[in-house]
């Protein structure tokens, strides 16, 4: 059981596929989880299908979806940090580090979860992960939390090796599917499921395991 988990990701929905089941499991064990989401994903391409949003209304819609996702997972401490979507790589690094260090100092987490810089496809993902790593690197070794990273770029296992942590989240598929379905402006999962539930074998094979890499500081 972790003391406290801090999740730092850039967009609403970043939590859904990769770690929602993992977080639900930790919460079930009694571990407090804080989710710091840097942006509202206001530059996202998807506006719903059928169309349900525009560039003006999308931020509030995605905020509501993120809150619903957190309710499904069981996260009670959601922090929205107010950065702008698709600009994290251009933000002042010291500002990002200061925000993240402030959360670490406040919460004293034993585990931080973020994206693996360089292996997470989107520039915001990589920049967020890099800022988290930079922050933790500055903390004295004996005081550092462990950092687990999401990685999914093509061929990442060829470089990083197999995931260090593989969580069986099948007991929490209800929460995970609820998290994914909450982001309805971005994902149309209902049609893909074809009425199948979390108890269906195909659903369990597709969504039942989550993989994370432990960042090894030099």
From TrEMBL:
InterPro entries: BshB2, GlcNAc_PI_deacetylase-related, LmbE-like_dom_sf. SUPFAM superfamilies: LmbE-like. GO terms for molecular function: hydrolase activity, acting on carbon-nitrogen (but not peptide) bonds, in linear amides. Gene3D superfamilies: LmbE-like. It holds the Pfam family PIG-L. This is Bacillithiol biosynthesis deacetylase BshB2. It comes from Paenibacillus chitinolyticus.
């Amino acid at each position: 059981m972790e003391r406290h988990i801090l999740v730092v990701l850039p967009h609403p929905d970043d939590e859904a596929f990769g770690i929602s089941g993992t977080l639900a499991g930790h919460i079930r064990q009694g571990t407090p989880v804080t989710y710091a989401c840097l942006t509202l994903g206001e530059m996202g391409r998807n506006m719903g299908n059928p169309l349900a949003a525009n560039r003006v209304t999308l931020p509030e819609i995605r905020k509501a979806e993120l809150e619903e996702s957190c309710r499904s997972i069981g996260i009670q401490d959601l922090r929205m940090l107010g950065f702008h979507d698709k600009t994290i790589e251009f933000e002042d690094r010291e500002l990002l580090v200061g925000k993240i260090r402030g959360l670490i100092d406040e919460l004293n987490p034993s585990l931080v979860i973020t994206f693996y810089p360089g292996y997470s496809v989107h520039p915001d993902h990589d920049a967020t992960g890099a800022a988290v790593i930079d922050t933790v690197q500055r903390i004295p070794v004996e005081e550092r939390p462990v950092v687990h990273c999401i990685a999914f770029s093509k061929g990442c296992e060829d470089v990083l090796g197999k995931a260090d942590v593989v969580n069986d989240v099948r007991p929490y598929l209800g929460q995970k599917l609820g998290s994914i379905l909450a982001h309805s402006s971005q994902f149309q999962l209902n049609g893909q499921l074809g009425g199948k539930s979390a108890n269906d074998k195909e659903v369990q094979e597709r969504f039942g395991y989550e993989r994370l890499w432990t960042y090894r500081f030099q």
